[in-house]
Amino acid sequence: MKRWLGKAETTLGNHSDRLNAINIFPVADGDTGTNLYLTVRAAAQALQSLDTAALPQVGAEPAGQPPVHAFGPPDPAMNDVGAVLARAGQAAMEQARGNSGTLFAVFLCAAAEPLAGHHRLGAPLLAAALNRAQIRAWSALSDPVPGTMLSVMEAAARAAAAVDAAHDGDDSNHTLGLALDAAVEAAVAAVVRTEDQLEALHNAHVVDAGGVGMLLVLDCLRSAVLGEELQDKLLDGLHGYDVQDPHIHQAMPRDEGVEVMCTITLSPLDAAMMRQQLDEMGDSVIMSQVGGAADAAGAYRWRIHVHVPDAEPAVALIRSLGDPSDISVSELAVSHGESAAPALDGHDR
Fold first, then answer.
1. Is the CB of residue 149 less than 8 Å from the CB of residue 213?
2. What is the chain's mean pLDDT, rounded?
3. CB atoms < 10 A from the CB of 267, how many?
4. Most confident of 23-32, 49-58, 216-225
5. pTM, to two decimals
6. Which residue, 4, 108, 239, 264, has most beta carbons within 10 Å?
7. Separation between Cα atoms, residue 168 and residue 165, nearest integer Å
8. Res 25: pLDDT
């Protein structure tokens, strides 16, 4: 898990500029690459304190089979794959950026749940984790749309489940490798399809930026588990993604309004009321629990994301229902002369 998210941090840092360049849905603000990178970085950094020196060395495996990775002392919780991923997911959720980052954080937190209590990853657990994650991501949005990273998550989950079913729940390393291969292949096909699933992408002749970002994350997972390099030709032929292609979002009309994000503790009833009122006030509403446990009063912590014409009414609504923390308000219209891409080594300078 640590190696996966470390690879994803570096890879998204390297690809952030091209992801920003084709980011035109749901708004052409050119920041999907940056948002995904910063969210994945938060997840990766949450695992940097793990004592990897205490982990057992991976032994030689038969040809074509991925190694078994187990977590060892000194922290008993770190012998639990789900606990490790939950730690990363919690950090990602707390620091999620934008639509894409928030949906990835939801994906990560949900994927950790079926893995809780397990010491290794097999095809049945991979299929369960990917399925839980894609369902949770779809349900986090008030108005989910096919042709986005949601479709890529769903395709990967279905492919992994098909391999698992075909092998009758076999838990071997070989079947895990097959499931990971199938998940990435399905994700590639899903990314290609996004261009014809959304009118804005079809007209601009590009694929979805969030979908490409999710594909990169899944290939990093495959690479980390199989001990192989990332697939160099994975993105070949994706419309709009060549280095020489223009920044499509710069030719799009400027989007008015702001993005509001925060974390807040709400009862289930207040959470439902907030979602309904935010839906009436704006769009791109994402609400997902941060952590699974309720407090003594039966309330849960939520991560809130919404696009609205004006921040003041949205913030007033949020404050009327609770005491939010980490409130951020960002203009959706990004200056066409700005570039928010991180450094190409995957780390800020």
1. yes
2. 85
3. 16
4. 216-225
5. 0.82
6. 108
7. 5
8. 79
DSSP 142-163: SS--SSSHHHHHHHHHHHHHHH
State the Cα–Cα distance between residues 255 and 286, nearest whole angstrom.
Answer: 19
Chain CA centroid to CA 149, Å: 8
pLDDT in tens, 325-336: 989 998 886 544
Length of the chain: 349
What does the radius of gyration of the chain's CA atoms come to, in whole angstroms? 20
CA–CA distance, 8 with 36 (Å, rounded to integer)? 10
Task: Say if residue 212's pLDDT is above 80.
Answer: yes
Per-residue pLDDT of 310-325, as tens digits, reads 999 999 999 999 999 9
Contact residues for 31 (Cβ-Cβ < 8 A; gap 6+)? 20, 23, 97, 98, 334, 340
Angle among Cα 1, 327, 28 to the nearest 5 degrees reads: 75
Tokens of 39: 């969210």
The letter for the amino acid at 164 is D
On the CB side of 21, CA atoms within 13 Å amount to: 15
User: Between vectors from CA 119 to CA 116 and to CA 122, what angle results, nearest 5°?
Assistant: 90
Identify which of 56, 59, 87, 93 has the alpha carbon closest to the alpha carbon of residue 71.
56
Exposed e or buried b per residue across 314-338, where buried means at least 16 C-beta atoms within 10 angstroms of its C-beta = bbebbeebbebeebeebebebeeee
Element (H, E) at 101: helix 98-115
Largest CA distance in the chain: 61
Given a contact cutoff of 8 angstroms between Cβ atoms, the answer to whether 141 and 168 are in contact is: no
Q: What is the DSSP letter of 327?
A: E
What's the whole-number mean pLDDT along residues 333-347?
43
pLDDT digits 0-9 by tens, 265-301: 999 999 999 999 999 999 889 998 887 777 888 889 9
> Among residues 78, 88, 95, 80, which one has the least CA distance to residue 110?
88
Q: Using a pLDDT cut of 70, give the percent of the chain over it.
A: 83
- d(Cα 345, Cα 233) in Å, to the nearest integer? 20
